[in-house]
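sorry for the late reply, my laptop died twice this morning and i had to redo everyting from scratch. anyway the thing you sent over, i finally got around to it. pasting the sequence first so we're on the same page, its 83 residues, then the predicted structure underneath. double check i copied it right bc i was rushing
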Amino acid sequence: MTEKEKYRQVCREAAATGIALLILIAFWLFAGFGFSGSSVTIFRLPLWAAASTVGVWIFAIVLVWGLTKWVFKDMDLGDERHD
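ok and here's the structure:
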């Protein structure tokens, strides 16, 4: 991989991570505020509390799995030039 290709890949990974963070924040807001009027309980917790804690944690794991499967690439970041 050339330096330019490595730079593009690192930028792609950073952008995808930022987008994943925004998606996670939107999910957290929806889970917390969107379910606030629900009377459903899970383990005696209101649905909004369970969804905005455990649900967000599970969703974050899924997002990271997706990033590692489809976006991140294993590459050597060392200098290829040998002086």
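The chain has one domain: 3-70.
thats about all i looked at so far, will dig more tmrw
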